[in-house]
């Protein structure tokens, strides 16, 4: 029976791989799904992220002002930049952002004045490729790698050709190196991170500079021929030959400028042209989307399905990088130090633990194991830095949730004893199987409220929590082999 099951599993994987190789599924994905939204009412609060699955960065057109959580809204008609983004929620906003904006004719750096009108009829928005032709006849194209992107800007013939780098909000630094056709620097815009947090970037161009300078986005003053500056909101501008077509390679790092250079060479060095990068990104997404084959249905239904699947494979973002030895390491925002291993971020556990993480255990069991280990490492980083955790959430995880975990273990054992199948725990919970969990949650909530004023919702949503933690137990059974040494036997 085990051998037969193994053969079936291998056959399914092989068939899935063949399907992924043969099918062009990215054509179904519309990354603008959910972007017709605003602060007053949400239809999704998404933006058209051009990104590889779970990449460290995404790239997107920017219709909103710098610092606005609604960075791309479908009903807007102008674009003011093409930015590196990490935002997982409009409500918590973005971090480590910088943008590039092509300008033709007169050089304009002010984000309001440089904004160019466009039509969605001249826009292609896919996971592996974004293209828009602005009404001023500039065409921008973007294609991603995990920690970088390849862009191509095609300026109208006979017109002045500028590219504006915007340092967004808070501190930034730029260094222009004309001889190497390169810009390096960092940004540190972020709401919750150590003061020394930086996103180091390196940008290289395939065409020489005709002119260049720096500027700042508070008063929009320019400094012609200036090569280096560091202050709040600084950026750079580059002028190319009139009517030029310019390819741009970008990579970034939270660890160091040297790591950003290494990543640029590792991820983008092998691609000679923009089209090569685009083709490689298409392949990654087609293989990913091909893990689920659907039959029947209309073309519109397939578009809805694969657009949703695209959104389900963006977050959590990788927060680790690969060193010269090819091993993963990461900058920890919890203690401001560099550690070996994996780290993930940009995920709202509130909204995703019922569906996203169960899906990950099916589609990405190895990654899900890395993510759980990353959660444990994050807690260790906090403890090493503060000795007891710095937020109510961390305190709750150390104090109140110890009771919850014990209750889940006990309840899970009860379910297995009754059904010999932990996967049915959710159904039993809806009846009476997890009454002990509910009581322990109430007690934990009361204890936490008395101490630090956290988890008051425990008394208000106990049915939901009972179901949620029941599902969490089931998922843990699936996930445990990914994070527990193979020498430990677990009955699934």
Strand content range: 15-25%
Helix share, percent: 25-40%
What's the helix count?
Answer: 13
Largest sheet: 9 strands, antiparallel
What is the total tally of β strands? 23
**Poorly predicted segments:** 1-12, 388-409, 411-442, 444-462, 483-492
The second-level CATH architecture of the largest domain is Distorted Sandwich
* Mean residue pLDDT: 80
Separation of the first and last Cα atoms: 16 Å
Number of domains: 2
Structural class: alpha+beta
CATH topology of the largest domain: Beta-galactosidase, Chain A, domain 5
Strand order of the largest sheet: 6-7-8-9-18-13-12-11-16
* Radius of gyration from CA coordinates: 24 Å
Q: Please give the CATH class of the largest domain.
A: Mainly Beta
Write down the overall geometry.
Answer: globular
Write up this protein.
There is one protein chain. This protein is an alpha+beta fold. The protein has two domains: 32-287, Beta-galactosidase, Chain A, domain 5; 317-483, no CATH class. The chain has helices at residues 2-22, 111-114, 257-268, 274-289, 299-311, 349-352, 356-363, 365-386, 392-398, 400-419, 425-429, 435-452, 462-483; strands spanning 58-62, 78-79, 81-85, 98-104, 116-117, 123-125, 130-133, 139-144, 148-154, 161-166, 171-177, 182-187, 199-205, 211-216, 221-224, 228-232, 234-240, 245-253, 317-318, 321-322, 328-331, 338-340, 344-345. The strands form five sheets. It has a nine-stranded antiparallel beta sheet. Helix 1 (2-22) runs antiparallel to helix 4 (274-289) and helix 10 runs antiparallel to helix 12. The longest helix has 22 residues, at 365-386. The chain is globular, with a radius of gyration of 24 Å. Residues 1-12, 388-409, 411-442, 444-462 and 483-492 have low confidence and may be disordered.
């Amino acid at each position: 029976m085990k051998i037969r099951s193994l053969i079936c599993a291998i056959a399914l994987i092989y068939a899935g791989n063949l399907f992924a190789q043969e099918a062009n599924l990215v054509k179904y994905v519309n990354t603008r799904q959910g972007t017709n939204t605003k602060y007053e009412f949400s239809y999704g609060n998404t933006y058209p992220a051009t990104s590889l699955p779970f990449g460290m960065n995404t790239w997107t057109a920017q219709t909103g002002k710098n610092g606005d959580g609604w960075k791309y809204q479908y009903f807007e008609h102008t674009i003011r930049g093409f930015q590196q983004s990490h935002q997982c929620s409009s409500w918590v906003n973005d971090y480590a952002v910088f943008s590039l904006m092509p300008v033709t004719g007169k050089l304009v750096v002010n984000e309001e004045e440089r904004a160019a009108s466009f039509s969605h009829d001249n826009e292609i928005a896919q996971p592996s490729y974004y293209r828009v032709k602005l009404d001023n006849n500039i065409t921008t194209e973007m294609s991603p790698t995990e920690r970088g992107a390849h862009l191509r800007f095609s300026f109208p013939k006979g017109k002045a050709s500028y590219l504006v780098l915007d340092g967004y909000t808070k501190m930034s630094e730029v260094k222009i190196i004309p001889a190497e056709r390169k810009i390096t620097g960092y940004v540190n815009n972020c709401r919750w991170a150590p003061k020394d947090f930086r996103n180091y970037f390196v940008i290289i161009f395939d065409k020489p500079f005709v002119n260049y300078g720096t500027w700042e986005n508070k008063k929009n003053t320019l400094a012609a021929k200036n090569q280096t500056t560091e202050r709040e909101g600084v950026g750079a501008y580059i002028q190319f030959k009139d009517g030029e077509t310019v390819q741009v390679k970008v990579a970034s790092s939270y660890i160091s400028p040297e790591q950003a250079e290494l990543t640029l060479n590792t991820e983008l060095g092998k691609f000679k042209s923009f089209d090569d990068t685009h083709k490689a990104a298409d392949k990654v997404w087609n293989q990913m989307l091909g893990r689920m084959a659907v039959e029947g249905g209309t073309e519109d239904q397939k578009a809805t399905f694969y657009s949703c699947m695209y959104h389900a494979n963006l977050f959590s973002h990788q927060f680790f990088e690969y060193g010269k030895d090819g091993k993963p390491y990461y900058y920890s925002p919890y203690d401001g130090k560099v550690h070996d291993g994996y780290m993930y971020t940009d995920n709202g556990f509130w909204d995703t633990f019922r569906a996203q993480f169960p899906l990950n255990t099916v589609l990405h069991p190895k990654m899900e194991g890395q993510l759980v280990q990353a959660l444990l490492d994050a807690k260790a980083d906090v403890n090493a830095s503060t000795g007891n955790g710095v937020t109510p959430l961390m305190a709750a995880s150390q104090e109140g949730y110890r009771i919850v975990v014990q209750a889940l273990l006990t309840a899970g054992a009860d379910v297995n004893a009754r059904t010999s199948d932990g996967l049915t725990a959710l159904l039993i919970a809806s009846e009476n199987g997890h009454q002990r969990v509910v009581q322990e949650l109430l007690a934990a909530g009361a204890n936490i409220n008395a101490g630090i004023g956290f988890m008051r919702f425990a008394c208000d949503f106990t049915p939901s929590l009972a179901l949620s933690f029941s599902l969490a137990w089931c998922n843990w059974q699936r996930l445990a082999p990914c994070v527990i040494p193979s020498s430990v036997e677990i009955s699934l």
